[in-house]
Amino acid sequence: MQESRHQPTAPTRTRRLAPGTAIDAHRHDDHQIAYAGRGVVAVTTDAGSWVAPANRAIWIPAGSVHAHQAHGELRLHLIGLRAADNPLGLDEPTVLSVSPLLRELILAYTRTPQDDDSPERARLRAVLLDQLRASPQQPLHLPAPTVPHLKAVCELLHADPADNRTLAALGREVGASDRTLSRLFKTDLGMTFPQWRTQLRLSHALVLLAENTPVTAVAHQCGWSSASAFIDVFHRAFGHTPGTHHPG
After folding, report:
1. Topology of the domain comprising 5-141
2. What one-character DSSP code corresponds to residue 26?
3. I want to staple 165 with a disulfide (CB 3.0 to 4.6 A). Which of 49, 83, 169, 171 is the partner?
4. Cα–Cα dist 29/31, whole Å
């Protein structure tokens, strides 16, 4: 990741970003919550990427160097929280479930001025922290490889998520055995090759859906054998079908 900018205070505000808009690498002394009220937001660090649609938010710990990417017409709600306010004790970026109540709290909190120190806003903040404390964490992290052969394989799949070649076939292209690559996926990325490829495909699917790509086309472009197979995997990962997933 490119050199980052230091922004001591994480702003609390709403931003509207056009599709493809990026916010360059930066860091804050505060924690930050990034929530897409519309569209999909992706957060990237040197450790990988996290993608969140409208029923998920991304927790970004204080000091984390990160960049944002907009997919679809993004309405990005950002909330800065003091470093002492860490209700889940998280020290790395994490995707959290957003309940209907938490969504409304985030929208209300980002509508009020950041310098508002009224008792009403303080109470709103307290309830927001309570709801964050109750938010389940979601395994939607796509870790980034650090080993050369693994990087080469992952780059091939990033370029074409629908690539259905076996690990052995991919290994022949990058000059490594499937046994070696299988071991590297577990030691370097903390997951198996099928698990990582599914995460990649789900992340890509979220981006395509944010761009209003039809479900059948998304399934094809992401490598699923049929739309029904894609819908099943998507539902198990996100709790709703891609047909009901919309930009906002």
Report:
1. Jelly Rolls (2.60.120)
2. E
3. 169
4. 7
Mean pLDDT of 40-50: 90
Other Cβ atoms closer than 10 A to 116: 12
**Rounded (5°) CA angle 126-128-130:** 70
pLDDT tens-digit map of 110-145: 987 777 788 998 899 999 999 998 988 877 789 999
Domain boundaries defined on the chain:
5-141, 145-238
Q: Which two tokens stand for residue 214?
A: 């039809």
DSSP string for 58-119: EEE-TT--EEEEEEEEEEEEEEEE-TT--TT---S-EEEE--HHHHHHHHHHHHS-TT---H
Domain 145-238 -> CATH class: mainly alpha
Cα gap 142→14, rounded to integer Å: 26
Q: How many residues does the chain have?
A: 248
The tens digit of pLDDT for each residue in 183-233 reads 999 999 999 999 999 999 999 999 999 888 999 999 999 999 999 999 999
